[in-house]
């Protein structure tokens, strides 16, 4: 029995050793100065490479560089690794994105560990614009196409995907439906171009005028009890507040009467000075007094002595008086003062 127990213990110990060895092999081993380190670990402050058995060490994206933290590891070889889905040996472990052997040495080192997501630009043969999206590397190409349906509007069964680098250089086609997106050289900034084979035309999904829209008459909309208009009526808000609306109309009428009184005291052809808030005084001649089509109320059309205006006496194609370009302006009667305001002499004629 004692020998049997020793055999069982030896078998269990050997099984645990094999599991640890397989787990390490799935992660990937590195060699630094002839010593195996398991996977690439770096000290968080110094950035120096360390053994994977160190308690509390952090696994980083760049070995011996001290970059972004990806996970932590326990002591005595029991590690906690970020899971990436899937099963089997080494499941849930982030694998190195690339391995390289330095020239002149037979050593291998990890150059980086892939992130769980990637940010790419999506373009399509049906659209003239690009969209920046982020996707998981664990998606299969078939699942990835289903997500692209909401972006480009093409059916997943009619898609052909092409991968381009950040410099718009063609890399490869994403034509393996069961392959993972992370198995292709997809990195941040790359572009994935979708070629549609459904027969749709370029810009077909961009012209919203061709999209059938739901329309309802004003009478039917007034009868609905769950509309915004019905809510405003019940709450007496906005234009459905009769008291507030009556007050606004009274204020507008009073303001119009005041402007009319002020405008009646400004005869056409008289000299004036305009003192608008925040602007220096400007002199000119009154050319128009009355209502306009571009804004409500009474306005005074002035022809300035200098090119300090905004128009030539016309607004929106309708002419109110004649003057040179940049000499005409329309102001409110409250900023116009009529009197003896001769043209200012700047002494330019004597020069």
Automatic annotation (TrEMBL):
Annotated PANTHER family: DYNACTIN 1-RELATED MICROTUBULE-BINDING, TUBULIN-FOLDING COFACTOR B
Name of the gene this protein is made from: TBCB
Positions in coiled-coil regions: none
Protein name: Tubulin-folding cofactor B
Pfam short name (any one): Ubiquitin_2
Basic residues composition bias: residue spans: 54-81
GO cellular component: cell cortex; cytosol; microtubule plus-end; nucleus
Keyword Chaperone: yes
Keywords, in A-Z order: Chaperone, Cytoplasm
Organism field: Vulpes vulpes (Red fox)
Region listing for Disordered, in residue ranges: 45-105
Protein family membership: Belongs to the TBCB family.
The UniProt record lists the keyword Chaperone: yes
């Amino acid at each position: 029995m004692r020998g049997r127990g020793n055999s069982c213990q030896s078998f269990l110990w050997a099984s645990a050793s094999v599991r640890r060895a397989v787990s390490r092999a799935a992660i990937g081993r590195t060699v630094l100065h002839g010593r195996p380190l398991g996977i690439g670990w770096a000290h968080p402050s110094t950035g120096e490479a360390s053994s994977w058995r160190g308690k509390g060490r952090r696994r980083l994206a760049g070995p011996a560089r001290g970059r972004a933290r990806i996970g932590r590891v326990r002591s005595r070889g029991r590690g906690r690794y970020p899971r990436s889905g899937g099963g089997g040996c080494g499941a849930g472990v982030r694998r190195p994105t690339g391995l390289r052997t330095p020239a002149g040495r037979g050593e291998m080192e990890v150059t980086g560990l892939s992130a769980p997501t990637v940010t790419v630009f999506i373009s399509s043969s049906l659209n003239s614009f690009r969209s920046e999206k982020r996707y998981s590397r664990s998606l299969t190409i078939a699942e990835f196409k289903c997500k692209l349906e909401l972006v480009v509007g093409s059916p997943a069964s009619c898609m052909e995907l092409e991968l381009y680098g950040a410099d718009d250089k063609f890399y490869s086609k994403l034509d393996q439906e069961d392959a993972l997106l992370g198995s292709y050289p997809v990195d941040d900034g790359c572009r994935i171009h979708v070629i549609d084979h459904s027969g749709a035309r370029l810009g077909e999904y961009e012209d919203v005028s061709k999209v059938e829209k739901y329309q309802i008459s004003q009478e039917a909309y007034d009868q609905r009890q769950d509309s915004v208009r019905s809510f405003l009526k019940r709450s007496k808000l906005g234009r459905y507040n009769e008291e507030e609306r009556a007050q606004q109309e009274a204020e507008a009428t009073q303001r119009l009467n005041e402007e009319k009184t002020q405008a009646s005291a400004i005869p056409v052809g008289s000299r004036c000075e305009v003192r608008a808030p925040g602007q220096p005084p400007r002199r000119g001649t009154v050319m128009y007094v009355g209502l306009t089509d571009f804004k409500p109320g009474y306005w005074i059309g002035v022809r300035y002595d200098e090119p300090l205006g905004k128009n030539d006496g016309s607004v929106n194609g309708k002419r109110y008086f004649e003057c040179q370009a940049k000499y005409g302006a329309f102001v409110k009667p409250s900023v116009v003062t009529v009197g003896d305001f001769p043209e200012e002499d700047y002494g330019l004629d004597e020069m």
